[in-house]
Known about the structure:
Strand content: under 5%
Mean pLDDT: 85
Largest sheet: none
Radius of gyration: 26 Å
Number of strands: 0
Amino acid sequence: MSDTLVAHFLFCIMPTKKRRLNVTLKKDVALYLKKLALRDDMPEATKAAQMIETAMEIEEDLYLSRIADDRFARTKKWISHEEFWSKLL
C-alpha cells in the first residue's frame, strides 16, 4: 500500500520555479477572467498573473506619484520657463 502512495505522490508533483497561489474568485470575476483569457488566447492562470502584475505596477505608480506630489508641495521657489532658460544659457 505504501508503494502505491509513493508512486502516486511522485506523479502528482509538478516541479515549477514559479510560486503558486490559490485564489477564490466571485462568479462574475471568474467569468470575466475566462472571457479575457479566451480573447487573448492564453490560459486563465497566465491572464490572471498578467493582470496582477499590471495592478501592482499601477499601485507602484500611485505610491511614487504621492511621493512626487509631496515633494512638489514642499517646493519653496518657482521660476518661469523663460527665467530658467535664461539662467541656463
